[in-house]
């Protein structure tokens, strides 16, 4: 397989155009500190927000904790797990550097691909100024009046957002771009601006008699349009189709203009419509972006998080969408990030059924700022929604609320946060009765443990079937019934970063961890492995027959299992190796599948990357197989001894 060999000139030109501070701050928040910049290192798990130093003069970075260091290329290679060529090509594309390779025929192909994208950018740029111009001509009068009178936008705002007007004819833009500016029609079609007529023969403009709102990428280049109808035409909003440049789920409207304000104020405001965002910017609240009517995706959320250090996001819902179900839907793409506390998500619902745009017509920016400051955290907001309008003195309503709250709190993986909410919810439900509050708190805690344990997952079989199941079963049995080896099992699971794959095992392990945590919250000297652990679990199980059935073979050890576990250290090592082997084989198949699907001629470097992955996976599999054989031999030795006795 031949690698694509880049010409040294290309590498050097890219190196000169790229600034390491720009590159790194697209991934983490950097703050100026003397001549350098500092931020949290993305290459190790630490919370030190200044571990990574970026030196703009030398164009290098260095982490004091994990030692990660290098230049902009190295950073991008490591963070995206990409090859050097891949990184250089991508940067060349972004910075408009002509790519030269040591094989000229390949260079031409690459150059064609790059310039095609540039041409689409050009078409979008030309269309933007065409529409802008039309807005201030006589045919754009109605659109212009609408913006000034109805939306109360200033001339300056209209300019900043490059708002425009698509004239009413069928081919005015076509005439401008294709006939006047000589752009190929196919290209303008790929930009999503014109549509081929059915039955062949020519094109017509996609946007006609509409107010035009250009959508920009983070670097301020127009990549799509939203077109609002001025009369009764449906749809009210017509968006550009997905193109090479535009993918709706990964773009936030006004991100290019909000970036600086988000990092300065350390929080982002997310609204639904274009005009909500525009109105907020006009009022000086420039950390606002819009989702363009769709639910916020995980992709969009991660973009926002790059610019706020405290991960502070405020969702501003329209009043008609402010129900719990709508809120759940809106955060579905990044639910985990909210519940595990990565994102500090707050919910702002507008008073009197307004959206942000309407609100700002009657109130000033300070009033809106105050709403932002007082917006409750997502979980608190949900609890309020559950309790709103309920009479807790009525048994049925009380039960409904406590069930809904239990359901909500099961989402919280962090014990500290969960404990905090169990406490506050019990207080709320008890309405000042301190005895009841205490009882409720215990009750909630117990219910949570069980519903977390059950989840909504299908029940798994109780008899060990696969090698993986046997290995996991043995690890748990040793942990539970051989207290002197608990530290060893715990440590090896942690250091090898192994998690249980069977849901009943996973949940049992979580119960154990929860119990240990409860034990260690007292100020007594820490005794992390209490002897009564098994009895405690058995008691907990006895209350729920379904749970007892699934965990019986783990909590009550029969004689056969006891013999099989006779050399616990060996068994643990073999079990870990077996789990790693299964995981390694899975990864091996995954890389092989990817490799088989790769067009090796078109993508030699990708193919090469997959091959190195396959090779290293294969090596570690062989190594693990050897380990398992050795430990297995040791084990049978022991068993032989038992037979003799
Ligand atoms: Zn580090």
From TrEMBL:
InterPro entries: DNA_primase_core_N_sf, DNA_primase_DnaB-bd, DNA_primase_DnaG, DNA_primase_Znf_CHC2, DnaG_bac, DNAG_N, DnaG_primase, TOPRIM_DnaG_bac. Keywords: DNA replication, DNA-binding, DNA-directed RNA polymerase, Magnesium, Metal-binding, Nucleotidyltransferase, Primosome, Transcription, Transferase, Zinc, Zinc-finger. GO terms for biological process: DNA replication, synthesis of primer. Signal peptide: none annotated. Residues 266-349 form the Toprim domain. Its cofactor is Zn(2+). A zinc finger (CHC2-type) spans 41-66. The keyword Magnesium applies. It catalyses: ssDNA + n NTP = ssDNA/pppN(pN)n-1 hybrid + (n-1) diphosphate. Its EC number is 2.7.7.101. GO terms for molecular function: DNA binding; DNA-directed RNA polymerase activity; zinc ion binding. Binds 1 zinc ion per monomer. Pfam families: DnaB_bind (PF10410), DNAG_N (PF08275), Toprim_2 (PF13155), Zn_ribbon_DnaG (PF01807). RNA polymerase that catalyzes the synthesis of short RNA molecules used as primers for DNA polymerase during DNA replication. Belongs to the DnaG primase family. This is DNA primase. It comes from Tumidithrix elongata BACA0141.
């Amino acid at each position: 397989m031949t690698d694509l060999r880049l010409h040294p000139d290309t590498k050097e030109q890219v190196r000169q155009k790229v600034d390491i501070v720009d590159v790194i701050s697209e991934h983490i928040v950097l703050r100026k500190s003397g001549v350098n910049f500092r931020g949290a290192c993305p290459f190790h798990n630490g919370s030190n927000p200044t571990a990574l130093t970026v030196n703009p003069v030398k164009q290098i970075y260095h982490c004091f904790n994990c030692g990660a260091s290098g230049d902009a290329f190295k950073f991008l290679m490591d963070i995206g797990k990409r090859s050097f060529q891949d990184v250089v090509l991508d940067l060349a594309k972004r910075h408009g550097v002509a790519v030269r390779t040591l094989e000229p025929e390949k260079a031409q192909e690459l150059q064609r691909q790059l310039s095609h994208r540039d041409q689409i950018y050009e078409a979008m740029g030309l269309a933007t100024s065409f529409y802008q111009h039309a807005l201030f001509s006589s045919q754009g009068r109605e659109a212009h009046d609408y913006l000034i009178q109805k939306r109360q936008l200033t001339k300056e705002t209209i300019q900043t957002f490059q708002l425009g007007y698509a004239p009413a004819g069928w081919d005015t833009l076509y005439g401008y771009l294709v006939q006047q500016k000589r752009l190929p029609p196919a290209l303008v079609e790929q930009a999503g601006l014109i549509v081929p007529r059915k039955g062949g023969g020519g094109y017509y403009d996609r946007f006609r008699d509409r107010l035009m709102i250009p959508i920009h990428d983070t670097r301020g280049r127009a990549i799509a349009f939203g077109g609002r109808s001025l009369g009764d035409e449906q749809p009210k909003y017509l968006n550009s189709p997905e193109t090479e440049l535009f993918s709706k789920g990964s773009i936030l409207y006004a991100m290019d203009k909000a970036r600086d304000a988000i990092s300065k104020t350390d929080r982002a405001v997310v609204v639904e419509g274009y005009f909500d965002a525009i109105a907020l910017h006009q009022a000086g609240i420039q950390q606002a972006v819009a989702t363009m009517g769709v639910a916020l995706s995980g992709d969009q959320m991660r973009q926002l998080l790059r610019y706020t250090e405290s991960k502070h996001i405020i969702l501003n819902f329209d009043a008609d969408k402010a129900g719990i179900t709508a809120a759940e839907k809106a955060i579905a793409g990044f639910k985990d990030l909210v519940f595990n506390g990565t994102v500090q998500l707050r919910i702002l619902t507008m008073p009197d059924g307004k959206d942000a745009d309407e609100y700002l017509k009657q109130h000033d920016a300070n009033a809106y700022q105050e709403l932002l400051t007082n917006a409750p955290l997502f979980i608190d907001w949900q609890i309020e929604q559950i309790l709103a309008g309920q009479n807790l003195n009525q048994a049925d309503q009380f039960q409904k609320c406590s069930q809904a709250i239990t359901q909500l709190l099961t989402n919280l993986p962090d014990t500290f946060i969960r404990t905090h909410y169990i406490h506050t919810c019990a207080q709320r439900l008890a309405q000042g009765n301190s005895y009841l509050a205490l009882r409720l708190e215990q009750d909630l805690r117990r219910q949570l443990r069980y519903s977390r344990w059950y989840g909504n997952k299908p029940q798994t079989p109780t008899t060990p079937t696969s090698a993986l199941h046997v290995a996991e079963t043995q690890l748990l049995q040793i942990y539970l019934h051989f207290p002197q080896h608990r530290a060893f099992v715990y440590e090896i699971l942690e250091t090898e970063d192994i998690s249980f794959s069977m849901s009943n095992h996973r949940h049992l392990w979580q119960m154990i961890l929860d119990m240990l945590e409860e034990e260690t919250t007292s100020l007594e000297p820490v005794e992390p492995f209490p002897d009564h652990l098994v009895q405690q679990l058995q008691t907990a199980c006895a209350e729920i027959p379904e749970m007892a059935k699934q965990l019986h073979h783990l909590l009550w050890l029969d004689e056969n299992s006891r013999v099989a576990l006779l050399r616990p250290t060996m068994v643990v090592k073999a079990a870990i190796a077996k789990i790693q082997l299964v995981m390694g084989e899975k990864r091996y198949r995954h890389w092989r599948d990817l490799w088989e699907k790769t067009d090796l001629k078109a993508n030699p470097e990708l193919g090469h990357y997959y091959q190195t992955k396959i090779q290293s996976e294969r090596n570690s599999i062989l190594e693990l197989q050897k380990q398992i054989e050795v430990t297995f031999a040791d084990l049978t030795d022991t068993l032989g001894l038992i037979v003799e006795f």
